[in-house]
Amino acid sequence: MTAIHPGLDVDLATDLQTVSLDRRKADIAVRIGRPSDGDLIAKPVGKLVFGFYGDEAQCERVERQGLAPVFVSVDEPHSNMPEALWLAQHFPRSRIALRAENHILQATAAKAGAGLALLPHYIGRQVPELRPCALAPLPPSKEICLLIRGQDRHAGPVRAVMRHLVDAFKENRALFSA
Fold this sequence. Notes:
Shape: elongated
Number of helices: 5
Distance between the termini: 28 Å
Low-confidence stretches: none
Number of strands: 8
Strand order of the largest sheet: 5-4-6-3-7
Helix content: 25-40%
């Protein structure tokens, strides 16, 4: 991105909490779902689709041996996240062997054999030691949108980054599909 636009400076921040575009905490946001408030423009770029991922032994336990799944999930401070609530609702009696604050740490734990992790495909599909596990049900997919303020829609730098992000999602479409 910066090689194509040498004068462009990018400050990338990742956070599980919503960043306010209205308060100018960011110029562009990647969000799950469309906002219904503010003067924001939403550009759909893909779907957030989840699957259960684990190492060979954990998947074997569930798929062939018919044993109850053991999970890796989010830690207590993040237990109100939608996928954590969904997992608790659909697998209320299942053991959670390890809790971690984000999907990357959960994927690492699943890769080490700690249990099955409910991961977005864009993470699970990129960890070679993990494989999808045939366990159902799965949470519904959610729309991923890029957001900008309406007043910024003609700003050159914002448009350049938006174009780059839209292209990146298109190029990686297979990571964001069912």
